[in-house]
From TrEMBL:
CDD domains in the cross-refs: HTH_ARSR
PANTHER family: ARSENICAL RESISTANCE OPERON REPRESSOR, TRANSCRIPTIONAL REGULATOR, ARSR FAMILY
Record keywords, A-Z: DNA-binding, Transcription, Transcription regulation
Regions crossing the membrane: none
Pfam families the UniProt entry points to: HTH_5
Entries under InterPro entries matching the protein: ArsR-like_HTH, HTH_ArsR_DNA-bd_dom, HTH_MetalResp_TranReg, WH-like_DNA-bd_sf, WH_DNA-bd_sf
Protein name: Metalloregulator ArsR/SmtB family transcription factor
PROSITE patterns, alphabetized: HTH_ARSR_2
Organism: Streptomyces tamarix
Domain HTH arsR-type per the UniProt entry, residue ranges: 26-118
Source lineage: Bacteria, Bacillati, Actinomycetota, Actinomycetes, Kitasatosporales
Length: 118
């Protein structure tokens, strides 16, 4: 029996990166941030890795659980680094393993951006 308590994850008060695309034209800064996110997801391997982390139980995945995407381990590391640089993932080292988590506001912000305003 474990004495560990599971604490709920709280989303920080993070503003979405950009408004819905049909609300107003993006500023230059918003366009750069948004393009970096979508460019990172434009690679099929990166998209699979992002999806694997996002859909993993608890919203967090060890690199050992998601590296079976048909490329070598160094290539997986490269793609995960690109996803982190784009602000899509965060990581935490625990012993010899690295655990990845989708940045809390990313999926909601991307969804809002692509949804038409009502």
């Amino acid at each position: 029996m474990s004495n560990a308590n599971v604490l709920p994850l709280l989303e920080p008060d993070v503003e979405p990166c950009c408004p819905p695309l049909n609300e107003r034209p993006l500023t230059a800064e918003e366009a750069v941030r948004t393009a970096a996110m979508f460019k990172a997801l434009g690679d099929p391997v990166r998209l699979r890795l992002f999806s694997a982390v996002a859909s993993h139980e608890g919203g967090e995945a060890c690199v050992c659980d998601i590296s079976d995407v048909g490329v070598s381990q160094p290539t997986v590391s490269h793609h995960l680094k690109k996803l982190k640089e784009a602000g899509l993932l965060t990581s935490e080292r625990r012993g010899t393993w690295v655990f990845y988590r989708v940045e809390p506001s990313v999926i909601a912000a991307m969804g809002r951006m692509l949804t038409s305003k009502e």
